[in-house]
């Protein structure tokens, strides 16, 4: 719960978050990393309420659901930044689709946001994954000077929704369709069932992936890279969407890496 009595007295997580923002406010203001999801929606509202100096930004991935992009466009104080290369161009340039291990898409499309800023505020929460649970509420940036402030790091999903509903905040309608988490269509970090659901829900994006895979195969041939695993775009799609990288012993990841490089 956002408001609860503990052995150490009453705790108000909302007041704590606003207090942290006011206490840590940097001279150049906060860079708010906004994705349009429920967590960053809560973070942006807390930042707005705190009265601190900030600017909010969304890094266009070119593969986010259209419904999510429409929702983000409706936010008057969120700047949208297009990438140098789209996901489709990246697939061709890298000679392989993005995978759980080769997550080049995140670095190219998302992780450059906030470079050069003192504090980047995010909606990362510890209970989202085992990996994120190992992080800290405040931590240094890996590539550049500055810090990340994961403002609602210790909030639960239930508390996030408690805040949204309690404050009558608008949110992306995909949650009401049963999507628990929002992000790139057919993201390789999602499970197989979710990725298949994405392909069925946004079939035009499946077609875009297939077209990119076809161009990727042609590029591989042009530069002299052989591939016994992939002969057609559909071969690439089947291998990729079903996560065969991890579940087929006769098609190990190492071989794909060798072919890609």
Describe this structure in words.
With about 260 residues, the protein is α/β, with parallel strands linked by helices. It folds into two domains: about 5-175, HUPs (Rossmann fold, 3-Layer(aba) Sandwich), CATH 3.40.50.620; about 190-260, no CATH class. The protein is about 45% helix and about 15% strand. It contains twelve helices and eight strands. The strands form two sheets. The chain has a six-stranded mixed beta sheet, with helices on one face. The chain has a two-stranded antiparallel ribbon with strand order 1-2. Helix 2 (about 40-50) crosses helix 7 and helix 9 crosses helix 10. It is elongated and about 65 Å long. The N and C termini lie far apart (about 50 Å). Residues about 245-260 have low confidence and may be disordered.
- Count of DSSP helices? 12
For the record, what CATH class of the largest domain applies?
Alpha Beta
Overall domain count: 2
End-to-end Cα distance, whole Å, is 49 Å
* Total strand segments: 8
What is the H level of CATH, i.e. the homologous superfamily of the largest domain? HUPs
Order of helices and strands: EEHEHEHEHHEHEEHHHHHH
Query: What's the architecture of the largest domain in CATH terms?
Result: 3-Layer(aba) Sandwich
**Percent of residues in helices:** 40-55%
Portion of residues in beta strands equals: 5-15%
């Amino acid at each position: 719960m956002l408001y609860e009595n503990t052995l150490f007295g009453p705790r108000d997580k909302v007041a704590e978050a606003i207090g942290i923002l006011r206490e840590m406010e940097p001279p150049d203001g906060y860079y708010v990393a906004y994705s349009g999801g429920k967590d960053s929606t809560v973070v942006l509202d807390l930042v707005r309420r705190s009265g601190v100096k900030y600017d909010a930004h969304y890094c266009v991935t070119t593969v986010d659901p259209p419904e999510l992009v429409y929702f983000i466009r409706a936010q008057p104080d969120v700047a949208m930044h297009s990438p140098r290369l789209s996901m489709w161009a990246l697939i061709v340039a890298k000679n392989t689709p993005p995978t759980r291990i080769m997550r080049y898409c995140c670095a190219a499309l998302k992780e450059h946001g906030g470079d050069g800023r003192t504090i980047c505020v995010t909606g990362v929460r510890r209970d989202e994954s085992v990996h994120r649970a190992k992080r800290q509420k405040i931590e240094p940036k890996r590539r550049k000077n500055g810090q990340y402030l994961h403002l609602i790091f210790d909030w639960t999903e239930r508390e996030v929704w408690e805040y949204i509903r309690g404050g009558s905040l608008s949110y992306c309608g995909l949650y009401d369709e049963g999507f628990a988490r929002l992000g790139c269509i057919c993201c390789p970090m999602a499970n197989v069932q979710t990725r298949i659901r994405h392909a069925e829900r946004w079939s035009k994006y499946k077609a875009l992936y297939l077209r990119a895979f076809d161009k990727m195969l042609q590029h591989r041939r042009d530069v002299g890279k052989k591939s016994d695993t992939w002969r057609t775009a559909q071969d690439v799609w089947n291998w990729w969407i079903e996560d065969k990288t991890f579940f087929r012993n006769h098609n190990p990841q190492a071989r794909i890496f060798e072919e890609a490089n």
